[in-house]
């Protein structure tokens, strides 16, 4: 259960005084009904509250998630990931920018010859380099990339919702999708098998929402 | 109803031979069960197919969308939009990049003094300028921005799903949220009141999926 502070207060109010209208909740919180609408919608969609027309909101003890929600939670990254847009660390920042344009992606995954995850480079990193004194043609991406172990990753069997949470929490657009393997020294390493982005998440929402219409 | 070609073929197969297992559908399409899984999941979530354990898939004639799906389709942009990250057209591209970093956004909305929508500028536009011969300090964003009428927009009362579709179809990250007004010549113009991005969509999916858990 991950409620915002305001959502927690709404749930408390509904628990203590249901049925209660949106208008009445808004008055108690000193907010407008319009400000509360998204919270009430989300809480009702998630099955925490029940909205009865012309009566008001009820708190749902032991709320059963809807079948759709159960399925939403079962979606796995592996079924919706994109192919990785990957480059080697020795190519120039200039060539990295050109690759971004030709592949039309916002981030590139930097990999070794064996497709092992070494780092990530984003449009933001490259803009920063372009602003500074970095010679884009001469300096390789390996110098300015964000490098392991500072990369947030996902795996094919991770739930889509967990991966989406990572994208939000870390304010990033792209997660490399990896598989772990053990190298000759017994250390854990990561092979890149895809990428998972906010575009994949948006596509999932559009597909769920528009199919069967 | 917006099905991909493969989803259409799946629906046809299920219509003609239900109940049918995922394995059997995969064989008919000469694909693996794993390849079909996301399509089958989405079709089931959207209520087009019904999955009965140990029996198989059925086509649902006149499928009723679930209550959650009905609500999902009712979500409006205005309830989930972010405040606009806006700049004036006369500031330099250099300052635009700095503003992007300080506001941590991928696109800036270019507006007049009256907050009228004039154009958009993205990290991609600025990277392109940085690669070329453009003097970032001297050239204003008004010169390199994408300008009206070539801007894809949304409005507060547009369904979130429609806005998300626009983001996918036009391969963009940000839609300016506008209100129309009529200027002194009787022409329609657009005032910027927010922005709607793939980050907003991702947040909605995370909220729906994780609340009430």
From TrEMBL, chains A, B:
<keyword id="KW-0677">Repeat</keyword>
<dbReference type="Pfam" id="PF00571">
    <property type="entry name" value="CBS"/>
</dbReference>
<feature type="domain" description="CBS">
    <location>
        <begin position="80"/>
        <end position="136"/>
    </location>
</feature>
<keyword id="KW-0129">CBS domain</keyword>
<dbReference type="InterPro" id="IPR036388">
    <property type="entry name" value="WH-like_DNA-bd_sf"/>
</dbReference>
<dbReference type="InterPro" id="IPR051462">
    <property type="entry name" value="CBS_domain-containing"/>
</dbReference>
<dbReference type="InterPro" id="IPR016842">
    <property type="entry name" value="UCP026546_HTH-CBS"/>
</dbReference>
<dbReference type="InterPro" id="IPR000644">
    <property type="entry name" value="CBS_dom"/>
</dbReference>
<protein>
    <submittedName>
        <fullName>Transcriptional regulator</fullName>
    </submittedName>
</protein>
<dbReference type="Pfam" id="PF08279">
    <property type="entry name" value="HTH_11"/>
</dbReference>
<dbReference type="InterPro" id="IPR013196">
    <property type="entry name" value="HTH_11"/>
</dbReference>
<dbReference type="InterPro" id="IPR046342">
    <property type="entry name" value="CBS_dom_sf"/>
</dbReference>
<dbReference type="InterPro" id="IPR036390">
    <property type="entry name" value="WH_DNA-bd_sf"/>
</dbReference>
<feature type="domain" description="CBS">
    <location>
        <begin position="145"/>
        <end position="211"/>
    </location>
</feature>
């Amino acid at each position: 259960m991950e409620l915002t502070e305001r959502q927690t207060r709404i749930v408390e109010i509904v628990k203590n005084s249901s049925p209660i209208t949106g208008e009445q909740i808004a008055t108690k919180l000193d907010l407008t009904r319009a400000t509360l609408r998204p919270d009430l919608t989300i809480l009702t969609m998630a099955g925490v509250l029940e909205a009865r027309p012309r009566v008001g909101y009820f708190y749902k003890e032991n709320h059963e998630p809807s079948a759709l929600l159960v399925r939403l939670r079962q979606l796995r990254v592996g079924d919706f990931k994109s192919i990785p847009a990957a480059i080697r660390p020795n190519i120039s920042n200039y060539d990295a920018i050109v690759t971004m344009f030709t592949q039309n992606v916002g981030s590139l995954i930097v990999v070794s010859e064996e497709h092992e995850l070494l780092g990530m480079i984003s449009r933001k990193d490259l803009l920063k380099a372009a602003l500074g004194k970095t010679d884009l043609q001469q300096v390789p991406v390996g110098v300015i990339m964000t490098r392991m172990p500072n990369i947030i990753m996902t795996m094919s069997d991770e739930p889509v919702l967990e991966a989406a949470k990572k994208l939000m929490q870390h304010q990033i657009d792209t997660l490399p999708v990896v598989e772990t393997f053990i190298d000759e020294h017994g250390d854990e390493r990561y092979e890149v098998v895809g990428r998972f982005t906010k575009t994949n998440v948006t596509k999932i929402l559009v597909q769920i929402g528009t199919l069967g219409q």
